[in-house]
Amino acid sequence: THTPTHPRERERERETEKMSSFVEKTLLVDPKEVEVTPCEILKEGHFFALELQNVLTPEECEAVIQETEQLGYEEALVNVGGGRQVLIEDYRKSGRCIVDDKEWAALLWDRIKEFLPNRLRGDHHQDCLVTGLNERLRFLRYGPGEFFRPHRDGCYERPDRSE
Q: Which of 46, 61, 62, 117 could form a disulfide with 121 if both were Cys (CB 3.0 to 4.6 A apart)?
């Protein structure tokens, strides 16, 4: 057994344990038993938003709420380009919990991939192959009067720049 000695190594190991348990504690049902329902597609030019219902069971939703509450929520910031984020409360006011978990993203992708196109047009009109969900999972919490004005989601690039 390897015992981490460097503080960063111990921190990474704790984060890995926390994330792997996130999957075990929140995705409770075999994906074959989940009946995802496509509901609505909103389009603006080549941008779109797709609403899917029943991706998670009510029990899974409750488990995600409990786990993210334990991890904690921060004020959600706005991406302003160049990798920078700022607090702009008249544009976005809500809580956000970010969880980096490749396994959770892959399991969620398995539940929804049949409802998504194989290719999308990117911001610079390039043709992009849709390969999955990125592991930067953002859980949002809105209280009374909180909101996020109409927007286009920002991009996430993996630290190793693989995607």
A: 46
pTM here? 0.74
DSSP string of 24-73, one letter each residue: HHH--S-GGG---EEEEEEEETTEEEEEEE-SS-HHHHHHHHHHHHHH--
**In terms of C-beta density within 10 A (0-12 exposed, 13-18 middle, 19 or more buried), how is residue 109 classed?**
middle
- What averages of pLDDT result for each successive group of 10 residues across the chain (163 residues)? 51 52 82 79 75 93 95 94 91 96 93 88 74 92 95 75 77
Report how far residue 77's alpha carbon sits from residue 152's, in angstroms, rounded to the nearest whole number: 14
